[in-house]
Amino acid sequence: MTAHPDAAVLDRLRQAVGPAGVLESPADTEPFRTSVGATFRGAAALVLRPASTQEVAEVVRLCAEARIPIVPQAGNTGLAGGAQPDGSGAAVILSVDRMRKVRAVDVANDTLTVEAGVTLAEVQAEAERVNRLFPLTLASEGSCRIGGNLATNAGGTQVLRYGNMRALALGLEVVLPDGRIWDGLRGLRKDNAGYDLKQLFIGSEGTLGIITAAVLRLFPRPRAIATAFAAIPDPAAAIALLGQAKARLGDSLSAFELMRAPSLTHAIAAVPGLVSPFVEAYPWVLLIEASAQEGGESLAAGLETLLGEGLEDGLILDAVIAASGAQRRNLWALREAQAEAQAHAGKGVKHDISVPVSAIPAFVERADAALATRFPGILPFTFGHVGDGNLHYNPVMPADWTEEQRRARAGEINRIVHDVVADLGGSISAEHGLGQLRVAEAEHYKSAVELDLMRAVKAALDPHGLMNPGKVLRAR
Amino acid sequence: MTAHPDAAVLDRLRQAVGPAGVLESPADTEPFRTSVGATFRGAAALVLRPASTQEVAEVVRLCAEARIPIVPQAGNTGLAGGAQPDGSGAAVILSVDRMRKVRAVDVANDTLTVEAGVTLAEVQAEAERVNRLFPLTLASEGSCRIGGNLATNAGGTQVLRYGNMRALALGLEVVLPDGRIWDGLRGLRKDNAGYDLKQLFIGSEGTLGIITAAVLRLFPRPRAIATAFAAIPDPAAAIALLGQAKARLGDSLSAFELMRAPSLTHAIAAVPGLVSPFVEAYPWVLLIEASAQEGGESLAAGLETLLGEGLEDGLILDAVIAASGAQRRNLWALREAQAEAQAHAGKGVKHDISVPVSAIPAFVERADAALATRFPGILPFTFGHVGDGNLHYNPVMPADWTEEQRRARAGEINRIVHDVVADLGGSISAEHGLGQLRVAEAEHYKSAVELDLMRAVKAALDPHGLMNPGKVLRAR
Q1: Which of A84, A234, B77, B158 has the highest Cβ tally under 10 A?
Q2: At B393, which helix (H) or strand (E)?
């Protein structure tokens, strides 16, 4: 068990980062101790904000020596409480938000080496500066930071074409739980000289070490882009169209996003300036986008043919192609306003699930039916990256439920939805990670063998269990 | 230390796989104990060929109990001795070559679930049967097997566009060193519910467990393809052209292969039916290929413009675009004949290196110069996947060297070449793995922290060191 740090250790920690790197008063530490929307809140002995890898290493070394738990944090935009300590005050928060250097740009290698505290938007801008694309695209891109994107293996709307964060990183620098620095900052497309250690740290939510820098992949900037909305009768039509879109557009297909109709109405009501592209209300809507380096006309023609054939087949009820940048931005704004739309519709219970793409229709049908049977009046509310088999399935509570009722029933609702997911071979956390939110739920669904393997890896790298304790997996 | 297995244990192992699954006589086990080209040769107590995951698990459980080392094997086409035991005869070889089932095809999910003994060519054919592409392409595709492709994170000529084997697998089934089965056969594009355990096993060359089945990603089949040869003055021109090709062709760019001129002459001399596309002899040649679902005309036009501009700039000395399938096959045959060309040119010393793409010209220049200084008369011989920063840099010995001299100097030649690689931030094994061939060399170049991390992972999963001992890393 870990004790509260004593005064002498706290002093050495303060010295390790200097006065500019320490926050202590409850008011100053509040933004670090609290998650977005204040869903998660914890206590911390100190918030430490080292400005360099060496300072991170020194902090971790001191904490390891004194057995002080560390909660690593980057942009603190996570939705699963992965960056919040527990309430004991025994832990320190180590934020990489002052590590903001772009260390190297290698245009001919299509790589960018940045420190963990650089925001995603800054990485995107840095790539654009050298006429390249960094494709990761998230709602929180202005404030989330690369260290957190890596620690959570972030996803978003461009995964269909470019993969998630794991696919976008070639090398890492990591401070290990004993304070040593692992320099794995290689910018190589191929490297089979031993275990691919970076894979351990990507997606492990700070439980195995602290990522301090990374070599990121850059891509050519698409010059041609074609964007459409397609109203469809049901998720089965979405999957059929996805197959046709892949066959026709191949790698050009860069986004394939699904929304449920009520959410469009709520988005328009919630966010000023949004306009529906359709006069009628349809049950489901797809946002389809394709992009390429050249051949804008054939891209648009391909998308048009896809939509035309879909209309003939009855897979599509109505469709619009953006005829201008403004129209395209409006379509994306409707997609991006789904969180606001949901808040407008009422309080919900969130899920971040994935299933095989082919199982999406079965998932929606079965989860809808199971919830409607158990909780009549619950409003299905769903959007997400259907091209990746990933839906944010966030049913909104009936208006007559109190907040207490919602909280009391949330666990049961989770279980109903996740039972369907498990039965279809899916995941209960597609892109948000487990954090502290879904640890117990993951234990429920994972096999004993898988949990043992995870614990073996954790024990091998962090034998004292000091790195982000209680996240991803719990001590036995 | 491991002892030779006693007779009772061997009997239980025989029973675990049945008579059809055991080979014992030296003649019968010879093909399993010996690598391609007989570079590596070992001894084995038995060769066991289980027909199912349950049988693999039973064999591994018995071996774990009796502390018998296991050397896993699939197609036995590796070039680094990763599938050969040592000479002691203490180990058993466990071949998955009888595990040949295609377990599932999910066309709408673009996935194929196969057992580890299915050959790469069979996977390619299965994909084609459902109008999909499995992109991994290797010289040994007719005989290498998926279990080996996964265990070595195989590369090849399509990595530029589709990634290596790690990027092509969504899920694994693995028999762990204690004989338990980990069922991670998920067909999900996104799954952040805990550590991504499959990453541990991919590329770890059978040292952490035995992969028995996998869920593989399928892709749309390109319908349009454009292939060219471009003669260039030097590797710097290749890298400049690569940047232009990416900007112009984007994801359509699917191969970007470099060859050194003498190798073309030798290929034509060695392989009947090959024809040079050029009248003149040029110092370096590129094979460039682009493919797409549609837009064959714009693809060909894009490639033509690329080559035309390169000729104007002086980056290209001469170029041909394949005007027919036969011409395209001839260009690829010239690329694929590089191994034969090398044998024709004389005995060499092989390297499978990668550096950042931007460092390719510096690598060639510095490695050439260092070798020429130390060993005048050595013939530079190089080909490879320059788009991935991966070269097979295999200098051919002067004609007056004896085989003994070649062998005696091979270590020094390796060290000269690998010192340049290390200095440029590269890898001494880009795609072939470490096997037993490059274990000592990897220890020389890797940091103590990295070796410790690798050993910690190994000890956590295989505490008795029974899985493919001596490969990838050695016991301390």
Answers
A1: A84
A2: strand B390-393
Q: What is the CATH number of domain B7-95?
A: 3.30.43.10
Beta bridge partners of B226: B290
Interface-testing mutation among A159, A182, A192, with chain B (most B C-beta atoms within 10 A): A192
Residue B219 has what pLDDT?
Answer: 97
Please give the distance of CA A311 from its chain centroid, rounded to a whole number: 34
The CATH class of the B224-340 domain is alpha beta
Q: Do B472 and A442 touch (CB under 8 A)?
A: no
Contact check, Cβ <8 Å, A356/B109: yes
Closest alpha carbon to A208 in A476, A456, A448, A442: A456
Give the position of tokens 């107590």.
Answer: B45
Sheet holding B352-354, edge to edge: B318-321, B224-232, B284-292, B253-260, B382-385, B390-393, B352-354
Band of pLDDT at residue A4, cut at 50, 70 and 90: confident
- Chain A hits for B167, CB-CB cut-off 8 Å, are 163, 167
Q: How far is CA A430 from CA A44, A205, A376, A384, in A?
A: 29, 14, 27, 11
ipTM confidence: 0.97
Compute how many other C-beta atoms are within 10 angstroms of the C-beta atom of residue A323: 10
Distance CA B355, CA B332 (A): 24
Examine domains B7-95 and B102-220 and report if their fold is the same: no
Residue from the list A166, A194, A200 with its beta carbon closest to the beta carbon of B472: A194
Residues from chain B that touch A153, judged by Cβ atoms under 8 A, are 192, 196
Q: Where are the domains of chain A?
A: 7-95, 102-220, 224-340, 346-423
Q: Do B293 and A189 touch (CB under 8 A)?
A: no
Question: Does CATH place domain A346-423 in 3.30.70.2740?
Answer: yes
pLDDT at residue number B263 = 86
Whole-number pLDDT of residue B3: 59
Q: What is the pLDDT of residues A353-394, one digit of tens each?
A: 999 999 999 999 999 999 999 999 999 999 999 999 999 999
From CA B28, how far away is CA B17, in angstroms rounded? 16
Which chain A residues contact residue B177 at CB under 8 A? none
Q: Is B295 in Cβ contact with A247 (below 8 Å)?
A: no
Q: Is B324 exposed, middle or buried (0-12, 13-18, 19+ CB in 10 A)?
A: exposed
**Structurally, what CATH architecture does the domain formed by A102-220 represent?**
2-Layer Sandwich (3.30)
The token pair at A131 is 């006429």
Q: What is the pLDDT of residues A316-338, one digit of tens each?
A: 999 999 999 999 999 999 999 99
